């Protein structure tokens, strides 16, 4: 675990432009959060982290289906890998796959009621895991930037 005092400065005094420096800080923080989420996701939902990311995309608008090509684009994953992940999620009863009307090759994916229930049951623990990990891995300047994106984080992310 990183010590908050060891977090890189957000001032960007190094060789990187400020935007690239901020991006690298964000990647470091999200990488740390992903590592902590992997265990919680496996314990609570019994799926892989990559499968969890697919479900999160679908859960953003649970009444709507997404085309597999769009999911692959959003996650930056090869379509062949996504096909395997969707098959695993379908086998677990968490998603449905349907052909797109008028497009022989198009496939849409949607959450099942079972997946919606799992998300409802696990959402509190998942949210707390994210908040706690961000609080541990981000320094004051990084937290300030994140607070602009996540207002609820501001109240709960103060170091102990």
From TrEMBL:
SMART domains: HTH_MARR
InterPro entries, A to Z: HTH_MarR-typ (IPR000835), MarR/SlyA-like (IPR039422), WH-like_DNA-bd_sf (IPR036388), WH_DNA-bd_sf (IPR036390)
Gene Ontology terms: biological process: response to stress
Domain HTH marR-type: 19-155
SUPFAM superfamilies on file: Winged helix' DNA-binding domain
GO molecular function: DNA-binding transcription factor activity
The name this protein goes by in its record: MarR family transcriptional regulator
């Amino acid at each position: 675990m990183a010590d908050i005092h060891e977090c890189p400065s957000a001032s960007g005094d190094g060789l990187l432009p400020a935007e690239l420096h901020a991006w690298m800080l964000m990647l470091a923080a999200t990488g740390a959060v992903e590592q902590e989420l992997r265990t919680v996701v496996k314990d609570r939902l019994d799926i892989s982290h990559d499968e969890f990311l697919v479900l999160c995309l679908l859960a953003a608008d649970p009444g709507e289906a997404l085309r597999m090509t769009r999911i692959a684009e959003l996650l930056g994953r090869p379509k062949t890998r996504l096909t395997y992940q969707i098959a695993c999620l379908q086998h677990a009863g968490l998603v449905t796959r349907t052909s797109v009307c008028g497009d022989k090759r198009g496939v849409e994916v949607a959450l099942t009621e079972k997946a919606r229930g799992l998300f409802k049951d696990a959402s509190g623990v998942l949210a707390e895991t994210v908040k706690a990990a961000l609080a541990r891995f981000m320094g004051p300047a990084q937290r300030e930037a994140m607070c602009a994106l996540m207002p609820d984080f501001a109240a709960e992310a103060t170091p102990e």
